[in-house]
Amino acid sequence: MVDLKSQYERYKSEIDAAIAEVLETTTYINGPAVKLFQEKLEKYLSVNHVIPCANGTDALQIALMALGLKPGDEVIVPAFTYVATAEVAALLGLTVVMTDVAPDTFNITAAHIEAAISDKTKAIVPVHLFGQCCDMEPILDLAKKHNLFVIEDNAQAIGADYTFSDGRKVKSGAIGTVGCTSFYPSKNLGAYGDGGAMYCNDEQLASDLRIIANHGQKRRYYHDAIGVNSRLDSIQAALLEVKLRHLDEFSTARQHAAAYYDRHLSALPGLKIPARQHNSTHVFHQYTLQVPAEKRDSLQEYLKEKGIPSMIYYPLPLNEQDAFRTCSRLASALPVTEQLCKTVISLPMHSELDEEQLKYICDVVKEFLG
Ligand SMILES: *Cc1c(COP(=O)(O)O)cnc(C)c1O
Questions:
Q1: Is 152 in the pocket of ligand 1 (CB under 6 A)?
Q2: pTM for the structure as a whole
Q3: Tens-digit pLDDT profile for residues 76-118
């Protein structure tokens, strides 16, 4: 699905030098590399504050903690997402309210959210799924009207641009109250281990996020709040700083691969290529097709026989997961989510796909569906 080796080889000298420098300076935690990466990411995203942390799941949890959400408060999340989004809310004793998503973009919309709001709702977690922003402008309007926090789960869409109706462009994750991202190796900006970050513009919130990520302390050994231990280590920060310089090239390579898939697959009967939203760029964390439910698993089997990896993101809606039985409620029925779990299939997608590989993959899909 991803080719981390070729990408490493392409930037090997820069990455090796950055890692070697951390080894020389021996500041493995909170070293200058972390500060440098933080500043570079602030600049890239045009946000006032980036707070690095240990992983994307922690980022979401710390955001909910810093916003002061209390047990019994409701948080609205899409049911078609990775578990982390909802898991951290449940862990904090919050009630997870699950909504359906749009059938074309796979994303939650303002209409879904509006139907899910109750007098206990405190926050919304839009997930920019597969690399494309949710339509954020109406979501922000709704959040303002109901006084809700907007926590963007930007684990899959770092680098995407959202365009407001007045023409203003904002980077995904920098749109709502706080953005959360993951540097898991297979993410668009991937570390060689775990990593994550939170970002926001508000100075007080940034300070609270930083304190909670660091055992609730501002001054060492003086603890103002119950926090967690969540750090990005210096080696990861150093190589992420190198990769960040190339993030836009990675996104472009992914977009070219997606355009190739589009050109060669869009005419196949019964197959739906991923929709593009008019006001967001798509950085293709995943290239996800919809195929008839009765053919999906046999297509995956066929691809496997031909040596092509594929993945089902996600096979079971969150509301059908045992873990959420007692800590969630449904905003309404979730027919789209249930249907998507039966029809989606993601093809290989990364920055190193070449035309020969793309042609082979498309030929095999065509052989099966054509
Ligand atoms: C990867 C991911 C996360 C969690 O990130 P980790 O770094 O693995 O903890 C959260 N939400 C979404 C949508 C993700 O894809």
A1: no
A2: 0.97
A3: 999 999 999 899 999 999 999 999 999 999 999 999 999 999 9
Query: Does pLDDT of 1 surpass 90?
Result: no
The H or E element spanning position 5 is helix 4-10
Is the pLDDT at 331 greater than 90, yes or no? no
* Pocket of ligand 1 contains residue 331 by CB under 6 Å: no
- Asked if residue 172 has pLDDT above 80, the reply is yes
CB distance 56 to ligand 1 below 6 Å: yes
Task: For each of the domains in the chain, give its residue range(s) and CATH number, in order of start.
Answer: 4-245 (3.40.640.10), 248-369 (3.90.1150.10)
Angle at 181 between CA 177 and CA 186, to 5 degrees: 160
- Only one residue has tokens 């402008």, namely 137
Cα separation, 363 vs 370, whole angstroms? 10
Please check whether residue 152 is in contact with residue 180, taking contact to mean a CB–CB distance below 8 angstroms. Answer: yes
* 84 alpha carbon – ligand 1 mean position (Å): 6
CA distance linking residue 165 with residue 167, whole number of Å: 5
Cβ distance 365 to 265 under 8 Å? yes
Does the CB atom of residue 179 touch ligand 1 within 6 A? no
Q: How far is the CA of 369 from the centre of ligand 1 (A)?
A: 32
In the block, tokens 């029809």 appear at 343
Ligand 1: atom nearest CA of 59 is: 9
SS3 348: coil
- Cβ 55 under 6 angstroms from ligand 1: yes
Q: Which two tokens stand for residue 348?
A: 């290989």
